[in-house]
């Protein structure tokens, strides 16, 4: 797999990727476009695989409404086919109107490249609102550029806090939220955190979880994928593991102890481990790939959804998977000391098991014997979060034009 690095864009390379002003694809026209009224121009920014899952239902909803036109910008933070194109295809996302092609690099390099390349785009197009989702570097950089240009920012999944500044995502969340004009919270803790930070309540909207919109839409389709047969698995008789946080995978000794813990668990049931590129690099470097686990490439959205839906247990350090397992009623052990998604513990199937491999194994074996149940789906995790977001934005246009 080819690894790309961030290079400072020259003026000419920036111009090359920007569409010309007379390009018919400047903003997408919804099918029922109302020509009498000027549509509200949205620029949606995505960069990494979880962003695609969250933005897809919002764009689909925007496409249904005559009040909106949108333009989709992919920063190129994720670029491998399995981390990007597969998601676009499976989610039915339109191809990005512009790819900033920032590639991999340090956090500063990624954010700086997004900022330089996006500034030209936003200056040329002047959308009414820039939409950013989640907490990746592209999210923060997109919010910064829009805010500096005086363009209102809408942040979807606002207010989540791990209260752990060592997590790069926590910085991204804090910066994005402080700059945003519309803060769309997925769970009540998000609203409470924003209020505690002094964000005016008029800017905060509790709308629910867009990732669950996507899950509900694609659950049946995912069930038709052949991933269980392909990997030789029986429904409800395997565990799924994912690991990609720098705190878990960047230290060789810690990573080795986590892989050994999973190996130990695999004596009780098969453990499937779709390996993120960052983790694969570290595992290869440490000679950890011959480990008795079922290692796969990162899976696409549909196969991964089927895999988690029918797992007996999921062990993860991801954010979104904690939410998906809550709705799927699958036991989830989060291999972290904290979570920014407390509702998945209060109401869902998630349990924080920390980073000590012995305690994790203990918790995993306990969970196999006594799997937790979700109490009730969290409020507004009902497949309609995107519609609520577009309602809020549509109301805002209505108010500003009256
Ligand atoms: C990023 C997000 C993280 C999110 C995760 C989902 C930040 C700070 N982190 O982490 O919050 O949970 O995405 O996957 O924004 N690589 C490839 N192909 C790709 C992309 C990356 O091979 O398409 C490799 C490169 O070696 C790269 C490494 O993965 O250096 C890390 O990628 P990067 O986007 O920097 O961070 P993630 O770990 O994916």
Describe this entry's structure for a reader.
- With 402 residues, the protein is of the alpha/beta class.
- 45% of the residues lie in helices and 14% in strands.
- It contains 17 helices and 13 strands.
- The strands form 2 sheets. The chain has a 7-stranded parallel beta sheet, sandwiched between helices. A 6-stranded parallel beta sheet has the order 10-9-8-11-12-13, sandwiched between helices.
- Helix 6 links the parallel strand 5 and strand 6.
- Helix 2 (49-64) crosses helix 8, helix 8 (210-223) crosses helix 13 (301-309) and helix 11 (252-265) packs parallel to helix 16.
- The chain is globular.
- Residues 1-25 have low confidence and may be disordered.
- The structure holds uridine-diphosphate-N-acetylglucosamine (UD1).
Main sheet? 7 strands, parallel
Which small-molecule species are bound to the chains here?
uridine-diphosphate-N-acetylglucosamine
Distance between the termini: 54 Å
Low-pLDDT sequence parts: 1-25
The structure class reads: alpha/beta
How much of the sequence is in beta strands?
5-15%
State the share of residues found in helices, binned by percent.
40-55%
What overall geometry do the principal axes of the alpha carbons give?
Answer: globular
Per DSSP, the total helix count is 17
Number of strand segments: 13
Order of helices and strands: HEHEHEHEHEHEHEHHEHHEHEHEHEHEHH
Radius of gyration from the CA trace? 21 Å
Residue-averaged pLDDT:
91
Q: Which sequence of strands runs across the widest sheet?
A: 3-2-1-4-5-6-7
